[in-house]
Specification:
With about 260 residues, the chain is an alpha/beta fold. The chain has a single domain, classed as 3-Layer(aba) Sandwich (Rossmann fold). About 30% of the residues lie in helices and about 25% in strands. The protein is built from 9 helices and 10 strands. The strands form 2 sheets. The protein has a 6-stranded mixed beta sheet, sandwiched between helices. The protein has a 4-stranded antiparallel beta sheet with strand order 2-1-4-5, with helices on one face. Strand 1 and strand 2 form a beta hairpin. Helix 6 packs parallel to helix 7. The longest helix is centred in the C-terminal third of the chain and has 16 residues. This is Sugar ABC transporter ATP-binding protein. Keywords: ATP-binding, Nucleotide-binding. It holds the Pfam family ABC_tran. InterPro entries: AAA+_ATPase, ABC_carbohydrate_import_ATPase, ABC_transporter-like_ATP-bd, ABC_transporter-like_CS, P-loop_NTPase. It comes from Trebonia kvetii.
Length: about 260
């Protein structure tokens, strides 16, 4: 059986007396889109924060490609090949597209200009940025030197996804990537997510939009009251089934879930 590229076993996270995560398991396989859904308070955000190094679980284990890891901060997760695009995009509006893609990972010029004077190699960063955007098939970003503040919401989302894809060698986590986008821009982002999967990346998609979830996801992880209620697929269950599981109107036994 294929080894999950990212796996969580028995994650528990407490905030005082509140159980935010109650022994949650999750498995993400190479080249798939796994949607994580659930009502507010179901533990989605806490789960993602544990997987991306923002929070440290109280108990439980996390594995990357079968090897146990321990994330103490987001940099640990990034070093393990896990990039996260949060709902509030961490882009620098005044900088151009290339500078945003390499934000925090700037390439310096070779020789004394880079090592002593710490001068950036803007030409190389623009070249690599253009290559990355071309590889992802992002047709809405034509001018790499364009300031991000001049871009539309969908284009900004594309910049954030391109940055995550460029450095997330294993996993890209997307938190509500189509929130506050129009119909046309949402369609562009959905295509980008599919293209991301087609390049071999494993994607975790957190979304409240059931239509998008069922259009994109290979499997769907359902959270309820801090626990994993079920893992279903768009082929075996309907949107109504998913909502019923989320709300507790329908209960799933372990034997009916699929991992």
């Amino acid at each position: 059986m294929t080894t999950p590229v990212l796996e969580a076993r028995g994650l528990v996270k407490l905030f005082g007396r509140v159980i935010a995560l109650d022994a949650v398991d999750l498995a993400l396989y190479p080249g798939e889109i796994l949607a994580v859904i659930g009502d507010n308070g179901a533990g989605k955000s806490t789960l993602i924060k544990c997987l991306s190094g923002v929070l440290v679980p109280d108990t439980g284990k996390i594995f990357v490609n079968g090897d146990e890891v321990r994330f103490r901060n987001p940099q640990d997760a990034r070093s393990a090949g896990i990039e996260t695009v949060h709902q509030v995009l961490a882009v620098a509006p005044a900088l151009d597209i290339a500078s945003n893609l390499f934000l925090g990972r700037e390439i310096r010029r070779k020789g004394p200009l880079g090592s002593l004077l710490r001068m950036l190699d803007s030409k190389e960063m623009r070249r690599r940025s253009a290559e990355q955007i071309k590889n992802l098939g992002i047709g809405t970003l034509q001018n790499i030197g364009q300031a991000v503040e001049t871009l539309s919401g969908g284009q900004r989302q594309a910049v954030a996804v391109a940055r995550a894809s460029a450095f997330g060698s294993h996993v890209v986590i997307l938190d509500e990537p189509t929130a506050a986008l129009g119909v046309r821009e949402t369609g562009q982002v959905l295509k980008l997510i599919r293209d991301l999967r087609d390049t071999g990346k494993a994607v975790i998609l957190i979304s409240h939009d059931m239509q998008n979830v069922f259009a994109l996801a290979d499997r769907i992880h359902v959270q309820r009251l801090g626990a994993r209620a079920a893992v279903i697929t768009p082929k075996t269950h309907t949107m109504e089934d998913a909502v019923a599981i989320m709300t507790g109107a329908r209960r799933m036994t372990t034997s009916h879930s699929t991992d």
